[in-house]
Structures are given as structure tokens and as C-alpha cells.
Design a protein that fits this description.
The chain is mostly helical and 70 residues long. It has helices at 3-23, 28-41.
Length: 70
């Protein structure tokens, strides 16, 4: 299954869920779910990612100057 097919199926499920919520008068539920998932996904993005070197040499992290990477 391709990623486009999977996204299409996911869109259909979300649209059916949204229409069902609108039918019972609670159209805010899908948006609350999406915002909660977004909050959880972005929760750890403010933490340090560690040494910026992809080569993992011994002196790379010692020469790291955070002012150069703003």
C-alpha cells in the first residue's frame, strides 16, 4: 500500500468521524483530538538534541559553539 493510499483512507475515516460528530451536535471533538495529538507530538521538540556532529569524532562536541547555530 502506498503512502498516498494510506492517507486517503485515513482522510475518509476522519471525515466519517467528523460527520458523525456533527450529526450528534459535537463538531468540536475531532478538532480537540487533533490539537491534543499535536501537543503530544511537539512536546519534546524544545529539548537539546545533543552534539551536532554526525561523524561522532572525539573532539567535535568540545568545539561546538551554540552562537554559530542560531
Amino acid at each position: 500500500m502506498s503512502i498516498q493510499g494510506a492517507l486517503t483512507d485515513l482522510m475518509k475515516v476522519f471525515l466519517a468521524f467528523y460527520i458523525g460528530c456533527c450529526a450528534v451536535g459535537r463538531s468540536d471533538i475531532p478538532f480537540k483530538m487533533v490539537s491534543q495529538l499535536r501537543t503530544q507530538a511537539l512536546k519534546g521538540t524544545t529539548e537539546s538534541w545533543g552534539c551536532p556532529s554526525s561523524f561522532h569524532r572525539s573532539g567535535d562536541c568540545m568545539t561546538y559553539d551554540p552562537r554559530n547555530y542560531k
